[in-house]
Amino acid sequence: MAASSPEAAQQQIDEIEALSSIYGEDWCVVDEDEKIYCIKIGDCLDQPKWTLCLQVILPPGYPTSEPPVYQLNAPWLRGQDYTELANSLEEIYIQNLGESILYLWVEKIREVLVEKAQSSNSEPDIKKTTEEVDEDCGNDFLLDYQPVQEDPVEILNYITSESQEVDEELPMIHHGTPLTDRRSTFQAHLAPVVTPRQVKRVLEKLYENKKIASATHNIYAYRIYCEDKHTFLQDCEDDGETAAGGRLLHLMQILNVQNVLVVVSRWYGGILLGPDRFKHINNCARNILVEYNYVHSVEESSKPAGKNKKIRKDNKKRTEH
């Protein structure tokens, strides 16, 4: 990986500020420290039919000497559609070596979505997808159910209720080092999981702890790889901290971890932290994943694949005081 230069660092800052201004709420900071961002793109502003989430990691050498690491997420994006779009982004990068290209990428993706929306009888093929079972970048479920319970444990009841199997063994639960900022405390918890039932059992066990149960928010996300179907089962929960679960799941996808549940507890201390709370949540999560050898570093988990670096294509399932 190329070393960062003052020029590259300033160009990154300028580009991020511009993109944040241009795209507003559609622009999401997943992890500021690791330069991980996501933008939701649609074929139109009001009730888009075709949407896609572009996730990027900006390495130290971008844009002067390194390309962004990227991931394309959409339930309909696979096969030839994915290949053609990836090739288009590759071509834009090559044609603009050394320059900031994220805006060009976003608008190219939007152009593709508009073309699909204008095509006759063209609808997103969501139900036929065999990719990951999860949420899109927004709040709409791709599955046919919408959990209404507020208790995070209850969200998994639908998944596990149809199976009357004997409860599986409770996985080992690990606890990370607490982090405190302006009287708010954050702590991550991690457990290896291979079934939704195990996720439910771990959450129930955690909530038996009075301190954890009393947390203002218990944000969680999990990713389970299904060997037989070659797909991922994954989901997340904000527990009242709007968008925190989705950002945590974004981080876990980009780190490409699997068969693991991460819960981050936050005890609110009475002082608003603003965007820093998301940074603390993801930092706690990343630290515990590193500590228990699910990932060594962001850089190592996103090695180059071809001329331009890509992360595996994952189609995602799915207030502060």
Automatic annotation (TrEMBL):
Superkingdom assignment: Eukaryota
Stretches that traverse the bilayer: none
Compartments (UniProt record): Cytoplasm
SUPFAM superfamilies with a match to the protein in the record: Ribosomal protein S5 domain 2-like, UBC-like
Keywords for the protein's UniProt record, in alphabetical order: Cytoplasm, Repressor, Stress response, Translation regulation
Pfam families according to UniProt: Impact_N (PF01205), RWD (PF05773)
Regions of compositional bias (Basic residues) in chain numbering: 306-321
Keyword flag Cytoplasm: yes
CDD domains in the record: RWD_IMPACT
Principal location: cytoplasm
Domain RWD: 14-116
Region called Disordered, residue ranges: 301-321
SMART domains: RWD
Keyword Repressor: yes
GO biological process, one term: GCN2-mediated signaling
UniProt-recorded Gene Ontology molecular function terms: actin binding; protein sequestering activity; ribosome binding
GO cellular component annotations of the record: cytoplasm
Protein family: Belongs to the IMPACT family.
Subunit and partners: Interacts with GCN1; prevents the interaction of GCN1 with EIF2AK4/GCN2 and inhibits EIF2AK4/GCN2 kinase activity. Interaction with RPL39; this interaction occurs in a GCN1-independent manner. Associates with ribosomes; this interaction occurs in a GCN1-independent manner. Associates with actin; this interaction occurs in a GCN1-independent manner.
Protein's recorded name: Impact RWD domain protein
